[in-house]
């Protein structure tokens, strides 16, 4: 049998790199209408490429050096004074994610912390953050992640503003906080982001979140009134209605018969399937859909985690388990966004600059998700590397980044 020539063997990878180059250039094209001045648009494109670049520390100086600038003035102007609306760009991020990753995915809400020194960065306060696992001096951002079988990425962001900031006129002025912005809880910020996504016509299969969001009855009712299925974690002492009585999940788990527990995987983990024992209990109906209590029991320690689900009456236990397990995607998004596109490396202090930096990080992050989806599709449709005569160590994504000077 004739062996493929070097040109033939490399053709699939060459085509993929070419598609990725075109995709990166298209990012600049869809950013262009959002900027009045050519200089600001050019700076935004450079900023996104630098976020994808080789700088180890992606602060203003590191990004500027990676872009070939001697000083960070162009990027500082982009975040602080240039005329552009970060919220409109943010809306386009979701549309880009829908095109690149497909419809019918899962929306996950979660927050992450950004450790800070001093007290001048907008929203910074002594507050609990999962980043440190304790109370630290930090800013906290609430984010929305979109996941489909093709990939996942962060698509929306809001800065959590503690009451100590919201009620202090002096700090508000220094931080450049708009007059219309007041204190909102994390679930309220999540609801606003979900409202934007659903209002844009997105029809996710599920909305998922941890206890911070699951215990908020206003958020749950908001989703129920829209007939939106969800699986939200709750604490054992959360009150839910069953019939005409309020019950607590921690009490109701005792009523689950041994034969009603089913061993299922909540998705693939780093060490294989994430296996747990699962059970559920039907609660009340609301607007044609049913509420459920979902229970997850550890195989080793026997600890039980609790969820409230809202779904069709015929929704399977397996579908709820898959939804509950999909929440880990947002944790992976935080890790990759911080490690790969500088989500946490910023050194800005004002409200506008924070949201602009985060928005451009979303642009870079969703591009990476789209690029990985393309690479995976190419590998699925093409022959294996060995059949193509390619070394197994060749990585199309790395080849693309190297070729563009981004790795």
Automatic annotation (TrEMBL):
Residue ranges occupied by any Transposase IS701-like DDE domain in the UniProt entry: 31-248
UniProt-listed InterPro entries: IS701-like (IPR039365), IS701-like_DDE_dom (IPR038721), RNaseH-like_sf (IPR012337)
Highest taxon, organism lineage: Bacteria
Protein name: Mobile element protein
Organism the protein comes from: Pseudomyxococcus hansupus
